[in-house]
Amino acid sequence: MNLATSLESIKGVGPKTASQLRQAGLETVGDLIDFYPRRYEDYSEVVSIADITPGKRTIKAKVDTVEVKRVKRGMTITTASLVDSSGGLQAVWFNQPYRVTQLKSGDEFYFSGNFEFRYNRYQLANPSAEKVSDMPVQTDRILPIYRAIKGLKSQLVRTLIVEMKSLISVLPETLPQALIDQEELLDRATALLRLHYPQTISDIQTAKRRLAFEELFQLMLASRLNQDANRRLEGVPMKFDLAATKQFIEKLPFTLTDSQRLATWEIIQDLESSAPMNRMLQGDVGSGKTVVAGLAALTTALNGYQTAIMAPTEILARQHAATLESLLAPFNISVGLLVGAVKGKARQLLYDNIQNGEVSVVVGTHALFQDKVIFKSLGLSVIDEQHRFGVAERQKMVDKAHRMPHILTMTATPIPRSLQLTVFGELAVSVLKDRPKNRLPIITNIVNPVSRAKAYNQIKQQLDIGHQAYVIAPLINDSNASDKKSIETELKRLKNSCLGGYAMGVLHGQMKADEKDQMMIDFKAGKFDILLSTTVVEVGVDVPNATIMLIENADQFGLAQLHQLRGRVGRSSTQSYCLLVTSDSQKPSKRLLEIEKSNDGFYLAEVDLQLRGPGEIYGRAQHGELNLKIASLADTNMIATVQRAVEQFMISGEDLLQYKQLAAAVSRYQRLTTLN
Question: Which of 104, 561, 576, 602 has the greatest count of CB atoms below 10 A from its CB?
Fold first, then answer.
């Protein structure tokens, strides 16, 4: 047996079991060994029912009776009477109707859960249940619980892992021995044995520390090697025009914030270098990233090179194009807009003008990636909301330049420090911390759905003094498969409320591009008092007169998305409000409580990382490939430790290729994280 051995050749794995394992993504012995437990159940202290006390408890008991009841809103409550030689008690599960088929009367199980006083009686709440006859000996008293992908049973995984114990014990090391000694890490084989066959809680902790270190070391070493590679690239140095920059800034209808000035200076210095810029400009909603990008485009155009600016939506692309056109018009710098709605002769003319260099700044969506888009001299690539674009898409833009262009990525989703050091380690980072001085914090309140009428009255107060409002719903049309609110339903509800007499517009993703653009133009012009929309308004839409937003089913949105949506209001000196209507009258989630108390996107990004993991921040196309099974990108202490270890490894001059498995993982991460 070796890591490449098919699981079908393992004793006890027939065609049906092999098919189930394949559906869960497990085909080889190596796949199974690297399939880590999701959690553990500690059966080291089993108490009798007569001796049970409140808290996390484990009992060994037989099932007497079990039944399931349906209550309001489709919720199910499953109850079972459990007995042992000392007495009996009740266990209850919420929304787990499958327990009825699992818990056969007369069968004996280990039940582990919280014993607490609920609904006027003591009961075991939502306990795990492991059949006594299924408890394999090799787990001793701590039982690994594996993810139930496609219905995969933990008991099956544990049974198969037993067959691999001898192989795991002789697995080769993947990290330099000097590093293991210095950081006092377990060797890899011991770590895997302790993870799958723990004897104590301490075993699990030391195993996780070793494997988390290895995962972060691979990722951060890849990022460090990318940094070195970036420094060796030959770019296009740009000359700084002080007079033109001063003129640009003087013509602005507002004063640049201190962080805008600093970011602009950092970018200009990068543009002057012969090494291509690879910088991320991160700033909270409304912090003024477009103006900073405009200054970079100005410098690029004055040096005879073109700028491409990619935006994830047509609405945002049009908004950027309009802003940049007004900023750059005094310098006779031509701005072109390439989106799906530009067709026929107009599109061909734009292609021609990009190729002959008459258009200096091109703003567009994914249309910019097309082969027909040929630049005469692309010198700067600006990627807005960079996490919306995959690595391959960003690479296509780079490939359109004759020489390596300067790259500026922008995001309104602040990147936590830990992600900056790992996934985005090869990027220089500029941060727009300041909001314009006249902006007030948005007052955010969680609204129970029974209090919706009160929320509508608050919107009415804003409309009556001449302001406008957004109402956000997650769906376009009603769906039997979901209890989420739809624009269809909300439009009827609004018209039958105290807001019925106000002009309402509708915006959603199924509308044609020109219809969406016209709706935003009309809303900005004040033709509608209320814009009822899906999350299509999440990014970049700027209507200063809109001062209040109501978000339906707010608890079903991610924290970063809620913060982005909220950023559509609060874009003037007027006090603005955001009302988060929950789906039901249950206690609000942690993320709603966090966004209610804070307007700080950087703080919320850190919370989001802890609650949801890196996927939301890192991006749709990439986060599934991060493959971090143990390490947490919120563990700043571990990241700092690994960062020092990476630097020491680089200084040591050791040959990475002598560690084949490490080198392969690093190479994969290099391809994944590089923005060049």
Answer: 576
